[in-house]
Amino acid sequence: MPFAAAITAGGQSRRFGSDKAAARLEGRTLLEHVAASLAGCPLRLLIAPPGRYALPGWQGVPDTRPGEGPLAALEAALQAAQAEVGPGWLAFAGVDMPRLTPRYWETLARARTPDALAVLALDAEGRPQPLAALYHTDLLPHVTARLEAGERRLRAAARPESTVVVPPHVLEAVSPDALRNVNTPADLAALGKAEQ
Ligand SMILES: Nc1nc2c(ncn2[C@@H]2O[C@H](COP(=O)(O)OP(=O)(O)OP(=O)(O)O)[C@@H](O)[C@H]2O)c(=O)[nH]1
Ligand SMILES: [Mg+2]
């Protein structure tokens, strides 16, 4: 996978009740599951408070606006990626999507067009998923401007005119559970049961 990767892991896991990045599923933490899906990326960034996690092969990057949420974390990730490897694409993921796979990311990568600056998958209800998406570093000025204007929703990062979406039937064929996410202990229990 010829693009940089960032996992955003600076949340408080309030709904989960304890650090969900460290919660276990099938012998690995949720954070390790997500990291495995992106292990083939040449630059791997973990956007989190310094010292909170040790993830071999991943470079810790502190939030530039700590506690301001995933849109601010995307800004930090795009800045770090641009500084490390120059302009290009970044795979951006939360800690709580343990069914992401390399094929999911490859499918998004294949959907890129010359004019696109973001690639988002649509869930089964047709909603774009900004937390397991590709963003180009050229979005950085837009992301910073939105943050400066008070915006905090991650879905504000992608601009409609430069966003490509991947329809559900395409993902269903390659990585059907990729968008399953864990906000509560019940979500985690349901994921574990789904395989049995
Ligand atoms: N770096 C960074 N990541 C964040 C921040 N806030 C949330 N995240 C991450 O964004 C992703 C999606 O956020 P949520 O699912 O809401 O996770 P959360 O905020 O820890 O959980 P709740 O407290 O229940 O909302 C997770 O991977 C979080 O770790 C932040 O301020 N900085
Ligand atoms: Mg949250």
UniProtKB/TrEMBL annotation:
EC number(s) given by UniProt: 2.7.7.77
Keywords tagged on the record: Cytoplasm, GTP-binding, Magnesium, Metal-binding, Molybdenum cofactor biosynthesis, Nucleotide-binding, Nucleotidyltransferase, Transferase
One MF term in the entry's GO annotations: nucleotidyltransferase activity
Ranges for domain MobA-like NTP transferase: 5-156
Keyword check for Magnesium: yes
Domain of life according to the entry: Bacteria
Location(s) in or outside the cell: Cytoplasm
Catalysed reaction, written as an equation: Mo-molybdopterin + GTP + H(+) = Mo-molybdopterin guanine dinucleotide + diphosphate
Annotated InterPro entries: MobA-like_NTP_Trfase, Molybde_CF_guanTrfase, Nucleotide-diphossugar_trans
Binding-site residues, GTP: 8-10, 20, 63, 96
Cofactor: Mg(2+)
Keyword Nucleotidyltransferase tagged: yes
CDD domains named in the record: MobA
Binding site for Mg(2+): 96
Domain comment (free text): The N-terminal domain determines nucleotide recognition and specific binding, while the C-terminal domain determines the specific binding to the target protein.
Family membership noted in the UniProt record: Belongs to the MobA family.
Role of this protein: Transfers a GMP moiety from GTP to Mo-molybdopterin (Mo-MPT) cofactor (Moco or molybdenum cofactor) to form Mo-molybdopterin guanine dinucleotide (Mo-MGD) cofactor.
Protein name per UniProt: Probable molybdenum cofactor guanylyltransferase
